[in-house]
Each structure stands twice: as C-alpha cells, then as structure tokens.
Specification:
With 325 residues, the chain is an alpha/beta fold. Helix content is 32%, strand content 22%. Strands 6-5-4-3-2-1-14-15 form an eight-stranded mixed beta sheet. Strands 13-12-11-10-9-8-7-16 form an eight-stranded mixed beta sheet. 47% of the residues are buried. The protein binds zinc ion.
Length: 325
C-alpha cells in the first residue's frame, strides 16, 4: 500500500485537496468504510460503489439513526462477529427497522437476554437468509468480502471466535476482526490469511490483547481505527496505542474523532472523513501535529465531496451478494 502513503503525506496531499489540482474521483468509484460512533462497541458500515450496504456489528444501543443519516435504506448483509452485547445489542432494532437480506454469524449461541432477544427476532424473520461464517467470498457490488476461517467452536472463548473479514476493492483493503485476541490473530497469521491492508479496525477496542507484532507486520496498515467509548477496561490500552502508532500512518478513535469514514479507491488511495464538529473544534485526534494539520485540509475538502455525493447518488439496481462455497 505504498501508493497510499504517498497520497497522504506532505505537500502532495495539500496540493491535491486544497488547491483542487486533481478533482475527487466521480461518484460510484469508491468504497466507504464507516466506523459508527457507538460508544464502547463496534458498528462498521461498508458501502459499495454501486450502493449496496453491509453492517458489521451493531453496537450496544441502536445504530439505526446513524444509518438513516447515512441514507442506508436496506442492508444487503448484516454480520454479528460474535454474540457479545457491545456487538449485537443494537442488532434487533436494526433488523426491525431496516430491511436486511442476508445475516451472518459464527453459529455460536449465548445465554444473555440480549442474545436471546436477537435469536427470537431472527426466528420470526424468515425473509432474511442466514449465512454461517465459513471461509467464503461474498460480493457486495464490486466489493469482495472474504470470510476468514474460525477456530473450532469448543476450543476457545467468544472473542477468539470473532468473524474475521477482509474487505477488498481493488488495491484498497480493510480488515475487520471483531474482538479477536492473540489466539485468533495468531491463528490467522499462521494460516497466512492476513493481507497487507489499508485500514485495520483495531481488534477488541484497542485492548492490549487485540494485536500481535506478527499480525501487524503482515497487515502493515496505513490507518488504524479504534472503535471505543467510555469503559472500565482501560481501552484503548497504552501498549496497543503505541503499537498502532508505530505500525500505521494514522490512528483514529471514535471516542475522540467521532464517526470515521475511510473512502477507498481501486488504486489503493484513500481519504479520511471525520465528524465536522470535531474538526472545527480542533479536538480529539491521536495524530501527530504534522499529520493532523495535513489531514484537516483533507477532511474539510472531502466532507464537501460527500455532501455532493448525497445529492447526486443514483439509485442503483441491487443484486444479491454472491456466496461462493
Ligand atoms: Zn467488544
């Protein structure tokens, strides 16, 4: 992902965005990966260039208002990475509020009321097609979502059976691994399924056990996004922040930066869109001062681009995800 590093560095970036030397790519030529600001939990929206949408986890509470603000009126794919409440708490409300075509989980049940409520909601919805998480490739428009292998169900705990997803749009790659910890991350590196990525969702909300040096060497992320809120666990832990800052150009966190959107292009370039209020206040980023200043220019320009997209976005014909066995 060397091209991305060039794109997001130094004078080139300022010239590209601030002076309008090169216009942003036309509508329909980018994938958008949005880390919703759901407090302590995960909810990640993937929008294909053609308009299809996938939601990976749904936070503690309902992310429906955030999804509606992003003009999501249908979810082609809904994924529960694992049955902990900070990932599935808002899922029943999503299912009851927005049409869902495919639902995927790791087939693991839980005894909590949150899980039981979700299971009962799903049982009543025969219109939703269930997919079990197993190694397969799912087409979301022109975006490919690769489902990684899981450890055996009886061999480990909930976090270490989080569904792992590799999202590919040309050279742009995002990695979403739920709350995977050292055991599962090591399994994936041993299986050689961790690619060089553009964007990495920090596993387990930036916990000390949500990364390994081998995993980060394989992933070599440009951007690390930490989905985290007020919590009693100490997330994100200092050692994780240090590792991510060493591994990536940019480290962002929803508790400081708000909603984070990465706009990815087929050639591997990317743009970062953060919450406008946070930018205007000059608050909350773990970026270094140089990178922060540069990305402020980038973000302001890209935010205008997003608004223009909303007005001109066509209503694409949707096709079902292709599930290769
Ligand atoms: Zn979690």
């Amino acid at each position: 992902m060397r091209f991305s590093r060039v794109f997001c560095s130094g004078i080139l970036l300022v010239a590209f965005v601030g002076c309008g030397v090169t216009a942003p790519a036309p509508v329909g030529e980018s994938v958008r990966v949005t880390f919703l600001d759901v407090g302590q939990g995960d909810a990640v929206l993937i929008r294909a260039p053609e308009g299809q949408a996938a939601l990976v986890d749904a936070g503690w509470g309902s992310p429906v208002s955030s999804l509606r603000a992003l003009d999501v009126d249908e979810l082609d794919l809904l994924v529960a990475t694992h049955p902990h409440a900070d990932h599935i708490g808002g899922m029943a409300d999503v299912i009851n509020s927005i049409p869902v075509r495919f639902y995927m989980d790791n087939s693991q049940t839980h005894t909590t009321a949150t899980y039981q409520g979700l299971a009962s909601t799903l049982q009543q919805r025969t219109d939703i097609t269930y997919l079990i998480a197993e190694p397969r490739s799912i087409s979301l428009g022109s975006v490919e979502i690769e489902v990684l292998p899981l450890l055996p169900i009886a061999s480990t705990d909930f976090n270490n059976r989080s569904i792992g997803l590799v999202v590919r749009y040309g050279e742009f790659v995002a990695f979403l691994g739920g709350d995977s910890e050292v055991e599962e991350l090591s399994f994936w590196t041993q299986q050689d399924v961790v690619p060089d990525v553009t964007v990495l969702k920090a596993s387990h909300h930036g916990s000390y056990n949500g990364f390994t040096s081998e995993f980060l060497e394989d992933a070599e992320p440009e951007i690390v996004a930490i989905s985290v809120g007020t919590n009693t666990y100490g997330h994100p832990h200092a050692e994780a922040l240090e590792a991510y800052t060493s591994a990536a150009e940019t480290v962002l966190r929803t508790d400081l930066d708000g909603q984070i959107t990465i706009v990815g292009y087929k050639d591997g370039r990317y743009e970062v869109v953060l919450d406008q209020e946070v930018i205007a206040m000059g608050q909350g980023s773990s970026l270094g001062s140089e990178a922060k200043g540069l990305c402020l220019v980038q973000i302001q320009a890209v935010a205008g681009f997003v608004l223009r997209n909303k007005k001109t976005r066509p209503n694409p014909a949707k096709s079902p995800p292709r599930c290769a066995v």
